C-alpha cells in the first residue's frame, strides 16, 4: 500500500470534531457560536476562551475531540496531489476515494433486497425492472447529498442532527433511525441464518445461524485494527462473491435478454394487478434505506480532505459521486441478476410445477414441505430466500443451490457489518456517546439480535421469511427521518457555504423525496390493512399516524427555516420550539473558512498545527 493511498495518522482532529468546522465556517459544527474553538491553539487569550467555553457546555457543544470513532478513528486515507500534472481526472485520486461508496452500496444488496428481487421476478417477470433501475437512481441522488454533507462540514448526519435539533426531536429521530437499523438488521441476520441452514444441509438450525452471525460479525468488525484499506478490501471481496455467485445463476438460467432490456427501459406494466403494484412499491421501500444516508455521510470522513481549500472540497465531492455511481451500478447489476433468474424460472409456476422438477433430486423431501398451499399445490409460488435455493437446486442441480447459499451468506454478512457501523455512528452522533468500541458494537448488535434470535427459535421457516414485507414497511416509515434532515442541512447556506444546494437541486430532491415517501406510505397502509386491525389497536394506530404526521410537519418547518424562509425564522414560536437554542441561520456564517485549524498529534502532544484565516469574498 503506497503512502499516497493510505497513511496512518494517529488522533487526527480538526477543530474539535474530526474535521468539524467551527462557527463562522461553511461547516456549521458551531452554528450559533460567535467564537472559534481551537483546541490546539496556544496563548493566554485562546486558553481563557477555551476555559470559558468549557463552562458553558450545552447540547450544541462540539463532540469531544479525543473520542474514538468507528471505522476511521486511527487512520485516514491521504489523497495524492496531482496538481503539478495539470490532469483534470486522476485515477490515482479516484482509487484513493474508492471505498465508502462500495460500503454504502452493500445496503442495496442485503438479503431483504435479494428477497424482494426474487419475489418481483416471480410475480411480474421482467415488467418492473425499470422500477428497480429508477429506485437505484433515486437512491444515488440522496446518497450524493449525504456524502456532500460529510465532505463539506466534516460532520456526519447524526452529528449534524445533534447540533441542529432540540433535545426531544433529536431523541425521537434517534429512536426512529434505530428502529430502521433494527428492521434492516433483522432481515440481514435472518438471511445469513437461512444461508447457513442451506449450506449446512439443515445441520445448523436457524437459531444457531443467528448465533454464528453474532460471533463472526464481531470478528470481521475488529479487522479494521489491521488497516482501513484491508477492511474495505474485505467488503469489496464480499461484493465480488455476490457478483460471481448470482452472475453464475444468471448465466445458467439464461433469461431472454430482449425481455430483460424491455423491462429495464420501458416504464410500463401491462396487465399488472394490485399484487404486482404492491411488489413494485416494495422494491422502492427495500432499496432506499434511511439509515444508509447516515452511514454514507460518516464513511466519507475516512478520507483526509483539506476543508480549508474549496477546490479540495469540490474535488472530493466529484470523486465521491463517481465512486458512488460505480458502486450503485454494480449493485444494480447484481440485483438484476437475481430478478432475471427467478423471472425466467419461477414466473407463472405453481408449487406442483416445482415439485415435478424436484422428483429425482436430493432436496425433494424439503421441497415437499416447502412448496405447499391450501389449493392442492395449484397456487402460484410464494417465493422467499429458502424456496429460491430449493428451486435452483431442483432445476439446475445441488451446486446451484449451494452457490445461491454462498451468495446470500456474503450478502447477509457484509450488510450486518455495515448495519452495525450505521448503528455506531447513530449512537455516537445523536447521543454524543463516548463508549469504547466493544461496548458500542455489543449494544448495537444486541438491539437487533435478541428479537431475531427469539423469532428464529420459536417460529417456523415460513413465518421467518414472510417477515420481509413487514420489515420493509417498518423501514419505509422511517425514510422521512433521514431524507428531510439531509435535504435541510445540504440546503442551508450557513452549513454548506458555497456548496449549498442550488434551486434546481432543492426542487428535484424535495419532489423525489415526496414521491418516494408517498409510495412507501402507500405500501405501509396496504400492509396494515392486511392485518384487519379493529377496536383499540386501530385507535392506537390512528394516534400513531397523527403523531407521525405532526413530527414530519415539524421537520418540514425546520427544513424551510434552514433554507432561509424569513417568515419562519422570525417567528417566535419557531425560534423557541424548532430552531437550535443559539440559532444563527444567516449567510454571514458561510463567508469564512472550511476548517479553522488542523492539528496532527502524537500521543496527545501537538506536533504540527495549521491555522487558517477567514476567507473573504
Automatic annotation (TrEMBL):
Pfam families: Nramp. Residues 15-25, 37-51 have a biased composition (Low complexity). Signal peptide: none annotated. Its main location: membrane. The keyword Transmembrane applies. The keyword Repeat does not apply. It is found in: Membrane. It is a multi-pass membrane protein. Keywords: Membrane, Transmembrane, Transmembrane helix, Transport. The chain crosses the membrane at residues 94-109, 129-151, 171-198, 204-223, 235-256, 276-295, 316-343, 390-411, 442-459, 479-500, 507-525, 537-557. GO terms for cellular component: endosome membrane; plasma membrane. One of its GO terms (molecular function) is manganese ion transmembrane transporter activity. InterPro entries: NRAMP_fam (IPR001046). Residues 1-59 are annotated as: Disordered. Belongs to the NRAMP family. This is Protein Malvolio isoform X2. It comes from Drosophila lebanonensis (Fruit fly). The lineage of its organism: Eukaryota, Metazoa, Ecdysozoa, Arthropoda, Hexapoda. The gene is LOC115623542.
Amino acid at each position: 500500500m503506497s503512502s499516497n493511498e493510505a497513511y496512518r495518522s494517529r488522533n487526527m482532529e480538526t477543530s474539535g470534531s474530526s474535521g468539524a468546522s467551527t462557527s463562522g465556517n461553511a461547516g456549521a459544527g458551531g452554528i450559533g457560536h460567535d467564537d472559534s474553538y481551537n483546541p490546539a491553539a496556544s496563548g493566554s487569550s485562546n486558553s481563557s476562551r477555551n476555559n470559558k467555553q468549557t463552562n458553558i457546555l450545552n447540547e450544541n457543544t462540539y463532540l469531544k475531540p479525543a473520542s474514538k470513532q468507528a471505522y476511521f478513528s486511527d487512520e485516514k486515507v491521504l489523497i495524492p496531489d496531482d496538481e503539478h500534472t495539470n490532469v483534470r481526472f486522476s485515477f490515482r485520486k479516484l482509487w484513493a476515494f474508492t471505498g465508502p461508496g462500495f460500503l454504502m452500496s452493500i445496503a442495496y444488496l442485503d438479503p431483504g433486497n435479494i428477497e424482494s428481487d426474487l419475489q418481483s421476478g416471480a410475480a411480474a417477470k421482467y415488467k418492473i425492472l425499470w422500477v428497480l433501475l429508477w429506485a437505484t437512481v433515486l437512491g444515488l441522488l440522496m446518497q450524493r447529498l449525504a456524502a456532500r454533507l460529510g465532505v463539506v462540514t466534516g460532520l456526519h448526519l447524526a452529528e449534524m442532527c445533534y447540533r441542529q435539533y432540540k433535545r426531544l426531536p433529536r431523541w425521537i429521530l434517534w429512536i426512529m433511525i434505530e428502529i430502521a437499523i433494527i428492521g434492516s438488521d433483522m432481515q440481514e441476520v435472518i438471511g445469513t441464518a437461512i444461508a447457513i441452514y442451506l449450506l449446512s444441509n439443515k445441520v445448523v438450525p436457524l437459531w444457531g445461524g443467528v448465533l454464528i452471525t453474532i460471533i463472526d460479525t464481531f470478528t470481521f468488525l475488529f479487522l479494521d485494527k489491521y488497516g482501513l484499506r484491508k477492511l474495505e478490501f474485505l467488503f469489496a471481496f464480499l461484493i465480488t462473491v455476490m457478483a460471481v455467485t448470482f452472475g453464475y445463476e444468471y448465466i445458467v438460467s439464461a433469461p431472454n435478454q430482449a425481455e430483460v432490456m424491455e423491462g429495464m427501459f420501458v416504464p410500463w406494466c401491462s396487465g399488472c394487478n394490485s399484487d404486482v403494484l404492491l411488489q413494485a412499491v416494495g422494491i422502492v421501500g427495500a432499496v432506499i434505506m434511511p439509515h444508509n444516508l447516515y452511514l454514507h455521510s460518516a464513511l466519507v470522513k475516512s478520507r483526509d480532505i483539506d476543508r480549508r481549500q474549496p477546490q479540495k472540497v469540490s474535488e472530493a465531492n466529484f470523486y465521491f459521486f463517481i465512486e458512488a455511481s460505480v458502486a450503485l451500478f454494480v449493485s444494480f447489476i447484481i440485483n438484476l441478476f437475481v430478478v432475471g433468474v427467478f423471472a425466467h424460472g419461477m414466473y407463472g409456476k405453481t408449487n406442483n410445477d416445482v415439485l415435478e422438477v424436484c422428483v429425482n433430486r436430493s432436496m425433494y423431501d424439503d421441497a415437499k414441505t416447502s412448496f405447499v398451499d391450501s389449493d392442492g399445490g395449484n397456487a402460484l409460488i410464494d417465493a422467499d430466500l429458502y424456496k429460491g435455493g430449493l428451486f435452483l437446486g431442483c432445476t439446475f442441480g445441488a451446486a446451484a443451490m449451494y452457490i445461491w447459499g454462498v451468495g446470500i451468506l456474503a450478502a447477509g454478512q457484509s450488510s450486518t457489518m455495515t448495519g452495525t457501523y450505521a448503528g455506531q455512528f447513530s449512537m455516537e452522533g445523536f447521543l454524543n456517546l463516548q463508549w469504547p468500541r466493544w461496548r458500542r458494537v455489543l449494544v448495537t448488535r444486541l438491539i437487533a439480535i435478541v428479537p431475531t434470535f427469539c423469532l428464529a427459535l420459536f417460529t417456523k421457516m415460513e413465518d421467518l421469511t414472510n417477515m420481509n414485507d413487514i420489515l420493509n414497511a417498518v423501514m419505509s416509515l422511517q425514510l422521512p427521518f433521514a431524507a428531510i434532515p439531509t435535504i435541510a442541512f445540504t440546503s442551508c447556506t450557513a452549513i454548506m457555504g458555497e456548496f449549498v444546494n442550488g434551486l434546481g437541486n432543492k426542487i428535484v430532491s424535495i419532489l423525489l423525496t415526496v414521491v418516494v415517501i408517498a409510495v412507501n406510505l402507500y405500501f405501509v397502509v396496504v400492509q396494515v390493512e392486511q392485518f384487519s386491525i379493529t377496536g383499540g389497536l386501530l385507535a392506537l394506530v390512528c394516534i400513531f399516524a397523527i403523531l407521525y404526521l405532526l413530527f414530519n410537519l415539524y421537520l418540514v418547518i425546520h427544513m424551510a427555516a434552514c433554507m432561509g424562509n424569513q417568515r419562519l425564522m422570525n417567528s417566535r414560536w419557531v425560534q423557541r420550539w424548532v430552531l437550535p437554542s443559539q440559532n444563527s441561520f444567516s449567510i454571514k456564517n458561510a463567508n469564512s473558512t472550511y476548517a479553522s485549524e488542523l492539528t496532527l498529534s502524537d500521543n496527545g502532544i501537538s506536533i504540527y498545527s495549521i491555522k487558517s484565516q477567514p476567507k473573504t469574498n
